[in-house]
Phenylalanine--tRNA ligase alpha subunit
Amino acid sequence: MRLPERQLAVLEAASATDDRTVAEIAAATDLKPETVAGAAFDLADDGLVEVASVTDESLKLTDEGRTYVDEGLPETRLYRAGLDAGADAEPASMGAVIGGADLDGPEVDIALANFARKGFGSVDGGELSVDPDADLDADPEARALAALAEADREGAALDASDLDVDGAVIDRLDSRGLLAVAESVTRTVTLTDDGVDALMTGVEATETVGALTPELLASGEWRDAEFAEYNVEAEAETARGGRKHVLRRTADRVKDVLVGMGFSEMEGPHADADFWINDCLFMPQDHPARTHWDRFALDVDPMEEIPEELIDRVESAHRDGWGEDGDGYHSPWSQDFAREVALRGHTTSLSMRYLSGVAGAELEPPQRYFSVEKVYRNDTLDPTHLLEFFQIEGWVMAEDLSVRDLMGTFEEFYRQFGITDIRFKPHYNPYTEPSFELFGEHPETGEEIEIGNSGVFREEVTGPLGVDCDVMAWGLALERLAMLTTGAEDIRDLHGTLADIDFLRNAEVSY
Ligand SMILES: N[C@@H](Cc1ccccc1)C(=O)O
């Protein structure tokens, strides 16, 4: 068997019959205790020795104890000052003795209490007498403190049994706060049967060195040492730190891109009046999407704070139409329904709020706004549908916008994500004309998936809001964008309770 030199030295210094401490082995091998401990643990890993730890208690001086070793215990100083004041012959004034002892604050009480207890003398009617026969050198408390100070200087550890005083003295010093009990761990090393066998069969020192040690550096031995090679192909555990969820990264990137394209961010309520979610969008009140099947209606008070004239204009667009040759639905329209609150099914409610001016946004064209926010739909969960998802809402207000502007904007936007082959299909929305759905090709399946919906708002939408130029707008699905950039085939791998942690950990995106 071959072992590194240090391990061999420790193995040879250890015994099968008695536990040797690391310090003893260090002394015997001329190695540092930490080197011995390291080698012993390596040997223990190979089953050649056993390492055990014993916790020892030792006594240490506290800072206050150390001060008294240097300056004398307060009661001793009081005694000496009393002698100087002649209090061994006749009582001397307390004030003068205390001054002479240079005691202050709490030290005075400490001195007086212990002076009397130790029989150094007595105090009576403001005068102090000292007993000329008191033997200060025999004071066991002072001796114990001096012994601890000595041990401290020598780096030795003493316990109560090493001090030549009785237990009560130690307790007293402890209660005076002059010493403390410190714990130290001693490690012992014992040869195991395998260790004995190894030594009997013969162990040789390997020439390779596993780790650079202070000794190798100091002795210069490192120059001739042969170092063990690292096995860079060894299996290592993968360390996984926390990181941003890929969907959040995508959302952040979307915001950066849109801000870079000159857009400002919109914000607004998740639970909103149907007025903002649907009526402003010229969605007839009997539209199937407005039934309880599709929306998450909330059982809360109707929304009061909607400008009255705006309600009137929207109502008139619905009933009679807007503009010269506009035609309304001529169907019932209820203000109560418009004020009902539901979870928004799209963030176009935010666009309506901003375009109407209630959100305080600038309305002089040109303007660009966006949001990347959650929407809620009573859909059936499937690989491409979630009940809540993030919508990338946006609109551009300018004179004379065309479909080319809309397509150009999307091409520029998606290019930032490496998506260059989006397709547009004519579509129908009650609120835009023309309207287009956007599709992208899934990188794994090659299938076309719908990634967004867009169009130019109808006059029936912009007119009542008080906007008299073109507004093109869209709602894109953040999760669908993430499916294209990560290759996720099921939207539920990305978020929700079924999200696939391994997929998310390994998802590589270029942003
Ligand atoms: N609100 C539409 C998206 C859209 C917004 C604005 C204009 C056109 C379409 C949706 O959720 O699908």
Observations:
- The two ends are 54 Å apart (CA to CA).
- The chain has three domains: 2-52+186-213, 61-183, 247-506.
